[in-house]
Amino acid sequence: MSRLWRTLGVLILLSVFAPVAAAADVDLVKQRVAKVGVLRGDFTQEKQVTGFKNPLRSQGRFVLAQDHGVIWTTLKPFPSEVVVTRDRILSRQSDGSTRVELDAKQQPAMRSVNAIMFALMSGDAQALSAQFTVKVDALPNNGWKMQLSPRSAMLGKVFTGLKLSGDRYVREVEITEANQDVTRIHFASMSETPAALSAEEGGKFE
């Protein structure tokens, strides 16, 4: 995930902002997706690399805090943690060592990385439509799916398309890269409680 955020941050500076998606599309997702301060859940990630038979799999848990950022904790196959804030991306390894991967003081695009990452995980169609052409379909039981196509040629050199689907929450994200590698992320066991970060969670953003 950190590689994806890093790439997005660089390209956002180079891409051209375009008009947002059709209001009806944006409104549909706005009405169906929950707006919560803190959301916790589990994830499973599968990446199919071109030329390899078996996909790369990982799983773990996440904390999405609207006022702070995201804690992305991989449990399998190798423990690690990525913490994304407004100003930086931190990578923590299983031995407790920490490495600053991106710092907004050195790379101002970091602030845009945060915005795009939040938009993907929260299903914010309006934010995503600044960089992608957005098509939204309504599904039964308050469900929806969203297809994203890059607006700029520069962004198209990295992604050929993204797909999101969900209901009250984003449930699945599929990312197809220009080299045809495909990453699928499934979110489960989402919880809006407790509504505040624990002391341990809050400390990770400091």
UniProtKB/TrEMBL annotation:
Keywords associated with the record: Lipoprotein, Protein transport, Signal, Transport
Signal peptide segment: 1-23
Protein name per the record: Outer membrane lipoprotein carrier protein LolA
Keyword Signal listed: yes
InterPro entries, per the entry: LolA/LolB/LppX, OM_lipoprot_carrier_LolA-like
Superkingdom, natural source: Bacteria
Quaternary structure and partners: Monomer.
